[in-house]
Write a structure and sequence with these properties.
Blueprint: E1 10-17, E2 22-29, E3 37-38, E4 41-42, E5 45-48, E6 52-53, E7 55-58, E8 65-67, E9 78-79, H1 93-97, H2 109-141, E10 143-151, H3 157-172, E11 177-180, H4 181-190, H5 193-196, E12 203-209, E13 214-223, E14 229-239, H6 244-258, H7 266-283, E15 291-295, E16 306-307, E17 310-314, H8 315-342, E18 349-353, H9 360-370, E19 375-378, H10 394-407, E20 415-420, E21 424-432, E22 444-446, E23 454-455, E24 465-474, E25 479-481, E26 486-487, E27 492-497, E28 505-513, E29 527-535, E30 545-548, E31 554-567, E32 570-577, E33 580-588
Parallel strand pairs: 1-10, 10-11, 12-18, 14-20, 18-19
Antiparallel strand pairs: 1-2, 2-3, 2-6, 4-5, 7-8, 7-9, 12-13, 13-14, 15-17, 16-17, 20-25, 21-24, 21-28, 22-23, 22-24, 26-31, 27-31, 28-29, 29-33, 30-31, 31-32, 32-33
Length: about 600
C-alpha cells in the first residue's frame, strides 16, 4: 500500500475503452506501472465481466437514468450513441441494412453529446468507486487521477476531438489523453511478442474486431531492445461491421421464422438472443453439420424447428449469418495487405484482437483469404499467466500502457516511432502564379499591394500576379514521427488594420483533403475543418511591423509559422512568432 501526502500525491491513470456496444476500464498507479487492474464488477450484475454494455435508459419522470447491466435486455434503451459523434458511419453498409430494433433515437448532435457525457460520467464514477473499495477513502483522496480514452482510427479529427471534449465534461479532467483503438491493441500485441512469434522487421496487421467497428492498422517492428518500437506501415482501414450485426441478423432470422407464431413473445426472443450472445456466437467454428439448440421452454412446433422445448438452428444457418458480416471484413484486411506491399513492407502476420477477433470462424476465413504465407494469430497477454480469453481487453490494456509510458518515459513498455498521416493538412497561402500549375480563373491579388488589394473579377493571369493556393504542411500517407512537431517552412502573415487596435491573437484556418494527390487550390476536394488561435497579447505592440495598404491605410503585418503535432487520435497546433512558441486553441467549423 502507498502512503500519500498533500505534497506528494499518488499518481493514477485510468484507461477507458469507450466502445460502440461495450466499454471497459483498467487502471494502474504510476509507482506500480506493471500492475494493471481491470474492472470486472459492474452495477446491475453480480457476475464478472471484462466489459459493460454501452447503453443508457432515462426515467422521464425524474430525469435519472440507468446504464449498462442495470438495463434489462427486454427494455428499449439508448445504444450506439457513440456513433452520434460520427453519424456518417451508421448511414451506410450494415448499419443501414440492419438498424437497431431496440434503440431509442437521439434527435440532434447535442443530444448525442449528452448521452456520451452521461455514460462517460457513469464510467468515471464507477472507476473511482472501484478504486475507493481497493485503496480506501484516505488514499483515494491523495491520488492525482488522469484518464486516457480510445477512439476509432477511421474517425476524422472532429469526432475524435468531440470524444475528448465529452470526456472532459464527464469529469475526467482537462488533460485527457486520446489513443486510437487499433494502436492501443497494437501496443498490447507488441507486449505479447513471445506469444505471437513476431521478430525484428516483421510487418503485421492488427485487426481490432469489436462489437460495432472493425479497425485495422499495420506496423513494422523497428526495434526490440532496449524498448520495442513500432513504425506504422500503412494508413489504417476500418468499417462498421462488428459482431453486433451478428445479433441483429440473428434477430431478423428469428423474426422471419417465428414472427407469425403467437406464443413466441418478447421473453422468448430475449432469451434466444442471450443464448446466441453467450454461447453460439462465441463457439461457432464454421461447422455446418453442427446443430445449435436455443431455449424455448414449454413450446413444441416441429414445423418451425421447435421440439422438446428447444429451437433447433442448423450450422449452415449460423454460417450464413456470420458470412454476411465477414464479407465486409475480409476486403478491409486484403486492402491493408495491398497497402503495406506497395510500401515495400510485406505482411507476415494478422493479429486478431477485440471480442469478435477471438472468433475461430472469423480467424479461419481471414486465414483462407490471405493465404498460408501470412499467419493469422490471436493476441494474448504476454505479461501474466493466461486465465482465459482476454482479447476483448487488449484495447483498454494497451491504452493504459501507452498512457503510463507518456507519464513516465523511463518506464515505457514500448513505443510508436511514427504514424502514417491519414489526410493532407494545410492552410491557404498566396504564391506567384505559374502557368500550367495554377488555374486561370481565380480571383487575383496584385504583387504591388499583395494582401491588401483584391481583384474581385475573374480575369486571365499575367506576369506580376499571385494566386491563392493550398499550402500543405503534412501530406497524406507520409510517415510523421510520434510527438515530433512539423513546422511549416513557409512564413505566413496575419494582417490587421491598425485602426482596429493592437493584435492580441494570430488566427489561421486549417484545411484537409482526403485525395491521394494534394489539390493545388481550395475546392470540392478540400475541407476547411478548424480555426486555430494563438494568444500573443503578451507581445509588446512595438514589435509588430506596420505596412501601408490600399488608401494608405496602416496594417499590422505579423509573420508566423504553424506547428502541427500528430498524436494517436488527435492533432495539436501552435504558432511560432519571432522564434517563440505560442499554444493554439482549436475551434472546429
Amino acid at each position: 500500500m502507498f502512503e500519500g501526502s498533500s505534497t506528494n500525491k499518488v499518481e493514477a491513470l485510468i484507461a477507458v475503452d469507450f466502445g460502440t456496444t461495450f466499454s471497459g476500464l483498467c487502471w494502474a498507479l504510476k509507482e506500480r506501472a506493471h500492475d494493471h487492474n481491470l474492472v470486472q464488477n459492474w452495477p446491475g450484475d453480480g457476475a464478472s465481466h471484462n466489459k459493460c454494455p454501452t447503453t443508457l435508459l432515462y426515467n422521464e419522470q425524474n430525469g435519472s437514468h440507468r446504464w449498462g447491466y442495470q438495463i434489462k435486455s427486454t427494455e428499449a434503451r439508448h445504444e450506439w450513441f457513440k456513433l452520434g459523434l460520427y453519424p456518417v458511419a451508421e448511414r451506410k453498409g450494415l448499419g443501414k441494412e440492419y438498424p437497431s430494433s431496440s434503440a431509442l433515437s437521439a434527435q440532434s448532435p447535442e443530444e448525442y453529446e449528452k448521452l456520451v457525457i452521461d455514460y462517460l460520467t457513469d464510467l468515471r464514477k464507477h472507476a473511482e468507486d472501484t478504486m475507493k473499495s481497493t485503496y480506501g477513502d484516505h488514499l483515494l483522496s491523495q491520488m492525482s487521477m488522469e484518464y486516457i480514452i480510445t477512439v476509432p482510427a477511421v474517425w476524422d479529427d472532429k469526432p475524435q476531438s468531440k470524444t475528448q471534449y465529452c470526456a472532459q465534461k464527464a469529469g475526467m479532467g482537462n488533460h485527457v489523453q486520446i489513443i486510437t483503438e487499433p494502436e492501443a491493441a497494437g501496443i498490447y500485441a507488441l507486449a505479447s511478442i513471445p506469444n505471437v512469434g513476431l521478430r525484428l522487421n516483421d510487418t503485421f496487421i492488427l485487426c481490432d474486431a469489436g462489437g460495432g467497428t472493425v479497425d485495422l492498422v499495420s506496423y513494422t517492428i523497428s526495434k526490440l531492445k532496449p524498448v520495442p518500437k513500432l513504425v506504422e506501415a500503412a494508413r489504417g482501414e476500418g468499417g462498421l461491421c462488428g459482431s453486433i450485426f451478428l445479433n441483429r441478423i440473428f434477430a431478423k432470422f428469428l423474426e422471419n421464422r417465428l414472427g407469425n407464431y403467437e406464443d413466441w413473445d418478447e421473453e422468448y426472443q430475449a432469451e434466444a438472443l442471450k443464448c446466441f450472445e453467450d454461447e453460439i456466437k462465441k463457439n461457432f467454428t464454421g461447422d455446418v453439420n453442427e446443430t445449435f439448440l436455443v431455449p424455448a421452454r414449454g413450446l413444441n412446433r416441429p414445423n418451425l424447428g421447435i421440439w422438446k422445448h428447444k429451437l433447433r438452428i442448423s450450422g449452415q444457418d449460423i454460417k450464413d449469418m456470420f458470412d454476411q458480416v465477414i464479407e465486409h471484413i475480409i476486403p478491409l484486411v486484403t486492402e491493408q495487405i495491398r497497402k503495406t506491399a506497395s510500401a515495400q513492407r510485406p505482411v507476415t502476420a494478422v493479429l486478431m484482437a477485440g471480442g469478435f477477433g477471438s472468433s475461430k470462424y472469423l480467424q479461419a476465413r481471414i486465414q483462407q483469404a490471405v493465404g498460408t504465407h501470412i499467419r493469422v494469430r490471436h493476441v494474448a497477454n504476454g505479461f501474466r499467466e493466461m486465465t482465459g480469453d482476454d482479447s476483448d481487453t487488449a484495447v483498454v490494456r494497451g491504452a493504459l500502457m501507452r498512457g503510463l509510458a507518456k507519464k513516465d518515459p523511463g518506464q515505457a513498455f514500448l513505443g510508436i516511432e511514427s504514424r502514417v498521416a491519414r489526410r493532407h493538412y494545410g492552410t491557404m497561402a498566396y504564391q506567384d502564379f505559374i502557368q500550367g500549375v495554377h488555374k486561370e480563373n481565380l480571383n487575383l491579388l496584385t504583387l504591388a499591394n499583395s494582401a491588401y488589394v483584391q481583384v474581385r473579377e475573374p480575369k486571365a493571369y499575367a506576369a506580376g500576379y499571385i494566386v491563392p493556393t493550398m499550402w500543405w504542411f503534412i501530406e497524406k500517407n507520409t510517415n510523421v514521427e510520434d510527438t515530433k512537431p512539423v513546422v511549416t517552412q513557409k512564413e505566413f502573415f496575419w494582417d490587421k488594420p491598425v485602426l482596429e487596435g493592437r493584435p492580441t491573437v494570430i488566427e489561421a484556418r486549417i484545411f484537409v483533403s482526403e485525395e491521394d494527390n494534394a489539390p493545388v487550390h481550395q475546392g470540392k476536394h478540400t475541407s476547411e475543418i478548424l480555426k486555430i488561435q494563438a494568444d500573443i497579447s503578451s507581445v509588446p505592440e512595438n514589435q509588430f511591423a506596420r505596412v501601408r495598404g490600399i488608401g494608405y491605410q496602416s496594417f499590422y503585418k505579423i509573420p508566423y509559422q504553424i506547428e502541427a503535432t500528430i498524436l494517436s487520435g488527435s492533432i495539436t497546433f501552435a504558432v511560432l512568432y519571432r522564434g517563440k512558441r505560442y499554444e493554439a486553441s482549436k475551434e472546429f467549423l
